[in-house]
Amino acid sequence: MPRQEIEGDWYMGWPDRKRHTASTSEDKDGRVIHARCPFWEHEGLITPTDATYVIAQLQVPEPIHPDDYDFEIIGKVKNPSRFTVNDLRRMPGHTVRAIAECAGNDTDYWDYLAARKKGGNLQKPSYELQPGKGNEWRGMADQADFDYSSIAELNPSTGFVSAGEWTGVRLRDVLERVEIREDAVAVRFEGFDEGRPDPTVQYLSVGRSDFEVYDPGIINYDKGLPIEKAMEPDTILAWAHNGEWLTHIHGAPLRLIVPGWAGNWWVKWINTIELMDHMPDCYHQTHYFVSGRSPDDPDKKPMTAIGVKTLITDPRDTDSPLSPGQYVIRGLAWSGYGAVKTVEVSTDGGQNWQPAHVEEHGDRFLWRRFSLPWDVSEPGDYTLMSRGTDEAGRQQPTVEWNFQRKHFDGIIPVDISIEQ
User: Fold this and answer.
1) pLDDT digits over 80-97, tens only?
2) Confidence of residue 27 (pLDDT cuts 50, 70, 90)
3) Residue 37 is inside which H or E element, if any?
4) Whether 268 contacts 253, CB under 8 Å
5) What is the per-residue burial (b if ≥16 Cβ within 10 Å, else e) of 250-288?
């Protein structure tokens, strides 16, 4: 394997290894709209803030200074109220360590694994970070010569997952202050980011452009959370991330944290919280981030909790070929339904499985590191695989193919050659 050299600046008196940062793409105004995370290089459990992934569904809003910020809670409550961050900080705090994963993370693996199963040679999606390509792919659907294939290579689907420590207050504690009415069944969160949803994003998700995308016009980003999920103890309103105040791109001054559910539920830049007696018709849960067999499926449903996922981070395909010797297969495992309890590893393409060591900790929605010693003396080609089982008894993979190709949790093979 390549040696990890000391590099970078001197830091606090000692030479420092390379510090992790995300690979960003910007819009035409220079605002970050996408950032891919090098999570496979993590040595611990928490992603540094500067390496945390970013997805902006609509236009990134102008910053609001925390001293000038407040939000309102309205709707099916007895005491509609406005709150500042300082109001929340006077309440009992709560910290959650959890995985945030984009619903479209690893989308391209749906096609890759299907082609591989049939003996095809579709190029494997790459985790290697490349410099962002700006706004080239945004808005392409509005161009007369639009073609899906022209945007696919500009926006890799990998690297949209990170682990963070989020500090704030339990949402249910805040809602109890305004007294929820008995007929409330949903909590709608609206951010102060707005814009027209770009149909290019849906074409990229589905993998083709021969269908019509619903156009809602200019909207604010919003999501309607079922009241049961809103009242769970780890659903919080957060003002801090990794021990520091939230940065603007990650939702400052205040954002929603919904552990176990995909990142599109974690509404940023909260402007309004509305209690409702019905599930709202939010674009990003009735038209996008939905499951179904096709764009015309009449029974499309919002996608919520992520699947069970394990990824081998060491060795990787790019480390091949390796010399015969002793290695350790390492990786990360997580689930939207709680802690991953066991991980199995195969070195022969899934014919035989061995139990790996899983590092324990007390955070249900934070990934766990796993490892298995691998003593390989015979030259040849090896396919490494891993699969996890969570506390709910779900074994990877759990998510069926859906037309928007969201929530991929398939078993990703790592191909390694051992040289003579």
Assistant:
1) 999 999 999 999 999 999
2) confident
3) none
4) no
5) bbbbbbbbbbbbbbbbbbbbbbbbbbbeeebebbbbbbb
**CA nearest neighbour of 265 among 181, 364, 365:** 365
CB 261 within 8 A of CB 229: yes
Sign of CA dihedral 385, 391, 395, 396: negative
How many CB atoms are closer than 10 A to CB 183? 10
By residue count, the chain amounts to 420
Contact 409, 336 (CB under 8 A): no
Task: Categorize the per-residue pLDDT at 62 as very low, low, confident or very high, splitting at 50, 70 and 90.
Answer: very high
The C-alpha atoms of residue 334 and residue 359 are separated, in whole angstroms, by: 12
Q: What is the pTM of this model?
A: 0.93
CA 277 and chain centroid, separation? 29
Dist CA 103 CA 256 (whole Å) = 16
Chain Cα centroid distance, residue 352:
30
For residue 322, what are the β-bridge partners? 418
The string of DSSP codes covering 179-246 is -B-TT--EEEEEEEEEEPPPHHHHHHHHT---SPPP---SEEEEEEEEHHHHTSTT-EEEEEETTEEP
Residue-wise pLDDT for 190-230, tens only, equals 999 999 999 988 988 898 888 899 999 999 999 999 999 99
Residue (of 134, 153, 137, 166) closest to 52 by Cα position = 166
Using alpha carbons only, how large is the chain's radius of gyration in Å?
22
Tokens of 109: 């693996």
